[in-house]
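Researcher: Quick test of sequence recovery. Tokens follow.
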């Protein structure tokens, strides 16, 4: 009976650590600096399907000039939602050359879909209001290494 209890405790601890890892924000992604006119943006890069699926979920705060750049392998219509995302965000859907195609304000913890109006490879999520406060709209071109090497 003792080996059974030991295995059961080990299994429960393993399940608890998996559950805890699933509701933890990802803070250790690679970073890249982007620019929007005179404004600098410190972005975390979501490069893999796993990193893109978690995105900014479970973050309780994010500095004003920080965001997350989602990088996809190919341009296509990208759609985002806010399940398990605690912060109000704005998504900028960005073409290969860095031009913002469209912006979408997104409410926390919703499953409403917000999509690009054209195929894009990049989506930049920032705190809601960041783009508006700086007069950044669709048609503005972002700068940074991500866009210099666009395919």
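Model:
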């Amino acid at each position: 009976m003792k080996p059974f209890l030991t295995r059961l405790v080990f299994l429960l601890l393993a399940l608890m650590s998996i559950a805890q890892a699933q509701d933890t924000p990802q803070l250790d992604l690679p970073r890249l600096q982007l620019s929007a006119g005179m404004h600098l943006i410190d972005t975390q890069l979501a490069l893999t399907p796993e990193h893109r699926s978690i995105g900014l979920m479970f973050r309780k705060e994010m500095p004003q000039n920080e965001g997350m750049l989602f990088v996809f392998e190919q341009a296509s219509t990208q759609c985002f939602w806010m399940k398990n995302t605690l912060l109000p965000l704005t998504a900028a859907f960005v073409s290969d050359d860095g031009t913002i195609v469209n912006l979408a304000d997104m409410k926390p913890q919703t499953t409403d879909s917000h999509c690009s109006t054209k195929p894009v490879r990049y989506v930049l999520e920032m705190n809601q209001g960041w783009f508006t406060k700086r007069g950044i709209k669709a048609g503005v071109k972002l700068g940074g290494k991500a866009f210099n090497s666009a395919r």
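The longest helix spans residues 2-22.
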